[in-house]
Amino acid sequence: MLETHSLTIVPTPAQSQVSALLELPERARALLVLGHGAGSHLRHPLLDSLSRALHQNGVGTLRYNYPYSERGRGMDSEPVRLATVRAAVLAAGQHRPDLPTFAGGHSMSGRMTSLAESRDHLAGVRGIVFFAFPLHSGPPDASRAQHLSQIGLPLLFVSGTRDKMADRALLEAVTGQLKLATLHFVEAADHGFKVPKKRGDTLAVMDEIARVTASWMLSRLA
């Protein structure tokens, strides 16, 4: 049985409210504030599949939109996106203060979460989860990861071996320099965690990602 709550959050006084969705499996053991990728939204099939798989592993999720994804067009400034992450984390703490909270998201949202944490601690957050961290948009480059060394929280990176935005060797080098980082590769998956048919299907990949994520989260609470 899944407990579901439709919520609204306000990123900044100058921004209109945006949608959020809190979903909790029976006997949830932890809560993940889960943001979407740059060209996506909270109900994108990737986040739907990932959330369902996490729920099967005892992890609740709070998904949310940014103002631009609520509008369905454009892109928000970085300060607005960072404020949206903070508002989503605050909402998680207000609605389920009893559950250990983690935060992160797919691609852009994982990076926005870590940027927010590097500038001022996200209250109550125990660790950050990156689903396909966007290490570079063109040729391999690690400049987008420079802020990660300023974070004192445990970090989990889940990345596909075919992800064109995260060269495997470079990502291994980056995470190898972070004392609290854990790296898990999903064989043959791309940036959206799609795999060739001979490797399996999306459901199997989501199950793998959810098992790894839930195990990592719960081990941080031991």
Oligomerization status of the protein chains: single chain
Global mean pLDDT: 96
Structural class: alpha/beta
End-to-end C-alpha gap: 26 Å
The CATH class name reads Alpha Beta
Radius of gyration: 16 Å
Largest sheet: 8 strands, mixed
Task: Write up what this structure looks like.
By secondary structure, the protein is of the alpha/beta class. It has six helices and eight strands, in the order βββαβααβαββαβα. Strand 3, helix 1 (45-56) and strand 4 (59-64) form a beta-alpha-beta unit.
SSE topology sketch:
Elements: E1 2-9, E2 18-25, E3 30-35, H1 45-56, E4 59-64, H2 67-71, H3 78-95, E5 101-106, H4 108-119, E6 125-131, E7 155-160, H5 168-176, E8 181-186, H6 202-221
Keywords:
222 residues, alpha/beta, Rossmann fold, 8-stranded mixed sheet, globular
Summarize this, please?
The chain is of the alpha/beta class and 222 residues long. Helix content is 34%, strand content 24%. It has a single domain, classed as Rossmann fold (3-Layer(aba) Sandwich).
